[in-house]
Structure prediction request, 336 residues.
Amino acid sequence: MTTELRATQGHVDGRPRVFDAVIVGGGFFGASLAVHLGRAGGQVLLLESEPVLLGRASIINQARVHAGYHYPRSYLTGLRSRVNAPRFIDEYRATIFDAFTHYYAIGRTFSNVTAAQFKRFCDRIGAPYAPAPASAAKLFNSAFIEEVLQVPEYTFDAVRLRERVMHDLASAGVEVALSTTARRVWQSPEGAINVDYGAAADMLAAETRVVRAAKVYNCTYSGLNRLHVASGLPLVPLKHELTEMALVEPPAELAQAGVTVMCGPFFSMIPYPSRALHTLSYVRYTPHLSWHDVPGQAYEDADVRLARYERTSTFPHMVRDARAISPPRDAAMHAA
Prediction:
């Protein structure tokens, strides 16, 4: 299914190969776009710098299938999630993990919404909820939590999602090049769009190959401006964050549950099915560092910034504060 591009594949009779679309970035968004265009009959080339598809943002995250509950301060975002989550679940049913009970606990202190406001928000976007059973409510410290609700919100298995996407790309006839990156996009005098590309492992190598396309889609997420800067295109004003997502073995009483404490400097711990663990994130401690790409200022590549960052963990702080809100009865939570 995947294709390792070679020098002879970049050209035909000395001329660049021509595609209807070249997509840069093989995360879920880029791969899904490639499948859509391939099924529509286009000749599509997907370039991914990692040795696997869906190997970065698509897998290094919380794996939550947002069903609207997470956005009580944005009705539009909540409604869009509410409408689109069932579509994703139906399309990728085999990747969905729903064998857990999800509790949303509304903070009594430091929360940006009250329990009444949260329930009113859910009613307006059509998101069902029910009072959590007393046994679940007792898992939370009432000094911090006003009310606990049970909701139908799930997670996805990132490894199964990758397998499904790879199958879809193959069936759609998309040509996939792994460990390969787009280095520059430029327009020839006759108007054709050209993409210089090469092995991702050696970005400084002089040897590059060229393909042409009617359209080029930059789906590289945090690397969006990397291609823009190399191509002399305007910088997109982006905010970057270096974040920490802990994988944990939860306490026994929460092993079959997901917990999201709303809506302020609180935590979330939900199943991460591809590793049979839970993710733990905490609004106060998960972000380590942030910066902006600012037009007119020097650009600094996000991967370069990450490589030199001292990777100290805030996990002990996450656990300390999470225990204050939902103290475990049976066993301590620890990192996996």
Q: What stands out?
A: The radius of gyration is 23 Å.
